[in-house]
Structure formats: C-alpha cells, structure tokens
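Example 9 (inverse folding). The structure is encoded as follows.
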C-alpha cells in the first residue's frame, strides 16, 4: 500500500497506480473493474497564504481564523483611540483644556477593557509578557514616583497615569493580536484619520497662526500630524511586505504626500529613512550576493549624504526648505540644557516642565523668542522630566526591546 502512496505525480503515474490498485482489489472480490476515463494528472490545489484563510472553503473557519479576521479591526480601533487625533479635534472645537482629560479617559478606559480580556482568556501569557517587559514597567513607575519632586504634581500625575495606560494597552495588544494584525491595524487607523483630516480642511484642517496653510488634519498642530503620518507610512510599507499586498504602497505614498502638505521636513526625513532601512534589510536577507550589494549601496548613500552635509550643510538646509536653526530648535536647546544642568539627576518631574503658565516654560520662551511646547529632542525631553537616571532607564528599555526584536526576526546569529 505504501508503495502506491509514494508514487510520483509526474506523467499521470499517480492515476495509473490508483487504477492498478483498484483493479487488484476488484479481482480479489471477483468483480469487473470499471473503466478509468481520466488518466491525466490533476493540478495541485492552490491554498491561500494569508493566516486567516481556511485551507478549504467548504469547512467553517476555526475560532483562531475568525479572530485573525477581526484582529486588524480591533487593532485599528485601539490605535485611533491612542492617536490623540480625536481628542485634539474635540479640544480645538470646545476647549484646549479638554485635551489631557480626554486622552486620560480614552487610554484608561481602553487599557482597563484590554487588560480585563487578557486576564480572562490569556492570563499566563499576559503575566509572562509583564515580566519580560519589566524595564518599561519600571519606566512607568519611575514616572509616577517623580510626583515626589515634580514642580507641578498634578500635571505629572495625569501624564504618568496616561503613560502607564499606554504601556498596558501595548502589552495587551501584543498578547491578543498577531504582529500582522497590529501593523495592518496601525496602517488602517492612520489612513482613516488622515482621510478624515482631509475632509475637514475647509473647516479646521489647516494651520492658521503658526505655519499658516500647513496641513494638520485632526491633530493639534502640524508636527504632531507629521509624526503620526510618518508612523502610518512605515506601517503601510511593513504591511505591504508582510501581507504581500502592493496596494498598501499606495497608502504609503498618500501619507508621504500629506507629510509634505504638513510642511514637516523632519517627519518626512525620518519616515524616508525608516522605510529605506526596512527595505534594505528585506533586500539583504535574500542571499549573500544581495546582502553585500545592499550593504555597499547603503554605505555609499550614507557616505554621500554625510559628505554633502559637511561640505554644503547650509545649502542643503535651504534646499530642504529649512533654516539652519531647524525651525528654532537650536534656539530652544541652549535654554533647555541650562535647566537640565540645574536638576541633572532627577529632573523636574514627568511632563511638568512644559506646563502652561509655568515659570520654566516662560523662561524658555523668553530665551528662544517664541513659545515652545517641548524640547524637540527625545533625549533632552526625557532628561528634563526624569533626569539622567530616568533617561538612562528608558534608553536601556528601548535598546533591550530592539535586541529582542532583532533576535526574534533574524535569530541569534543575525
């Protein structure tokens, strides 16, 4: 029997073997074999490669397959609530004071629901992931602990609780959803929010006071819009590769066009660099020749860019439509660095430094000559809020997460 099952499917051998086996069984039972009318080999059945597709259309989907179908929608809903786009639009229409309150309400409500679901259905996986992400949990707890030295405790309490809720949402999504669903949901969310922002352009979708005419959509200002669109463009590129669906590249191009409309050159540069890095990694993973080719192309591009910046840095900035102060960043940083030196170890409390009406924010505005809402530098922002201790803790958490992700994707040996 095994000899017949192991026969080749080439040139109709499987059909002849099946006919011989059928003939022998009928001879044993003294019956006349029926003629075999189709001896041609049958084409192999094509299976869907997407994880949520059933191997056969005739059988019902399993619970896991149904969950995978709905996972991108759940992911998109979570990202819409976490994007601060809806809250920003509501705050613009009613009162700016509502922004922090609605953000805290949305994030805490969502985190409570998701953590409850994880504890009910996947408690073991949730606690294992909680232990694995101890550095980020310590970051949240350290932000809450900064209440004891914060210059504005109420602002620190509100912001640190929001940070804790964000971490729990991210961890719950990692427990319940696949990476494919998370990236796809992120792409859907940003595309939907951007489309809604385009629709409200006649009403309130453009900047009016600072950077007039720049696209901001639902977000509070153009820099926040550029940051969100850059993340969405990267999500579209990743989804196009993971889901083998080139249509997401159209979404990526749409978001990059809107970044240009937002006049956010920093977001455009960061988005382009991230997408280029992702594509390069995918390119060099295809084999030794492509690996070395990709590395050399990357080295050449970096070298040309560095040489251009060193030789004609001011001209490059002008070509990019930027002044050499990087839209005032270099005017903010000297003042911020002086404040960092005064409270180097512990900072001024999480998100307390830029409180509206606060003395520290007012002093930076006097030094820079305009109103600033943040340091426009991630390291400076962390250090001014939590000191060098808190910034080091966050840096360690990010580096550890990056190494873990690299190991998961490419293995221990890279």
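The amino acid assigned to each position is listed next.
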């Amino acid at each position: 029997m095994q000899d017949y099952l192991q026969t080749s499917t080439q040139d109709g051998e499987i059909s002849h073997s099946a006919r011989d086996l059928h003939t022998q069984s009928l001879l044993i039972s003294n019956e006349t074999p029926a003629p075999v009318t189709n001896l041609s080999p049958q084409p192999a059945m094509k299976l869907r490669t997407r994880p949520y597709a059933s191997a056969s259309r005739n059988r019902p989907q399993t619970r896991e397959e149904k969950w995978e179908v709905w996972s991108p929608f759940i992911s998109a809903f979570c990202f819409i609530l976490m994007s601060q786009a809806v809250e920003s639009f509501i705050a613009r229409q009613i009162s700016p004071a509502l922004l922090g309150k609605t953000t805290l309400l949305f994030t805490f409500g969502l985190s409570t629901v998701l953590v409850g679901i994880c504890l009910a259905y996947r408690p073991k996986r949730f606690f294992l992931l909680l232990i694995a992400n101890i550095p980020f949990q310590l970051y949240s707890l350290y932000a809450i602990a900064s209440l004891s030295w914060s210059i504005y405790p109420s602002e620190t309490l509100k912001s640190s609780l929001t940070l804790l809720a964000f971490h729990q949402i991210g961890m719950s999504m990692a427990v319940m959803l696949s990476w494919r669903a998370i990236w796809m949901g992120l792409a859907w969310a940003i595309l939907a929010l951007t489309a809604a922002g385009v629709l409200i352009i006649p009403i309130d979708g453009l900047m009016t006071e600072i950077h007039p005419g720049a696209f901001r959509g639902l977000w509070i200002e153009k820099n926040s819009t550029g940051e969100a669109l850059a993340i969405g463009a990267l999500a579209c590129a990743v989804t196009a590769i993971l889901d083998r669906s080139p249509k997401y590249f159209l979404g990526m191009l749409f978001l990059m066009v809107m970044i240009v409309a937002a006049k956010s050159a920093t977001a455009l540069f960061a988005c382009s660099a991230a997408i280029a890095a992702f594509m390069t990694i995918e390119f060099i993973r295809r084999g030794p020749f492509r690996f070395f080719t990709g590395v050399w192309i990357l080295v050449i591009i970096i070298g040309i860019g560095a040489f251009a910046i060193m030789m004609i840095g001011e001209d490059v900035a002008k070509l990019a439509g930027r002044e050499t102060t990087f839209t005032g960043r270099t005017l903010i940083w000297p003042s911020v660095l002086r404040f960092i030196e005064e409270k180097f170890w512990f900072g001024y409390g999480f998100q307390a430094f830029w409180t509206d009406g606060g003395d520290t924010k007012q002093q930076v505005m006097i030094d820079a000559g305009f109103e600033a809402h943040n340091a426009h530098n991630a390291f400076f922002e962390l250090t001014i809020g939590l000191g060098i201790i808190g910034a080091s803790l966050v840096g360690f958490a990010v580096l550890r997460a990056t190494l873990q992700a690299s190991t998961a994707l490419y293995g221990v040996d890279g």
